[in-house]
Amino acid sequence: MATKKTSAEKRYAQSEVRRLHNKAIKSTCKTYARQFVEAVHAKDKALAEKTLNTLVSQLDSARSKGVLTRNAVSRKKSRMMKLYNVSFAAEAAK
Questions:
Q1: Which ranges does the record mark as transmembrane (predicted)?
Q2: How many Cβ atoms from other residues are within 10 Å of residue 44's Cβ?
Q3: Structure confidence by residue, pLDDT tens digits, 5-61
């Protein structure tokens, strides 16, 4: 029996750790996105703004770590900003 792992076993172990790490990052982004949408639907502008800032930060972090692609992050941020602006545009006009 070999005393070292084969390269395939090592790659499998590394990829499993990486997969779980990436899964945690994506899950965090999804959680903040859900909280943001709930805050918008509840018309809670302060909470929505706070959650949006956190979400944007998390998405940028995921992009820098290579978990999400540049276009995916841009698309998600754009959709969330649009939702925020449409939902609270009437308040800003008053």
A1: none
A2: 13
A3: 788 899 999 999 999 999 999 999 999 999 999 999 999 999 999 999 999 999 999
Pick the CATH number of 8-93 from 1.20.1050.10, 1.10.10.10, 1.20.58.110, 1.10.1040.10: 1.20.58.110
Angular region, 43: left φ>0, alpha ψ -120 to 50, beta rest: left
CA 17 to chain centre: 19
Q: Is the pTM of this model over 0.90?
A: no
Give dist(CA 54, CA 41) in Å, integer. 18
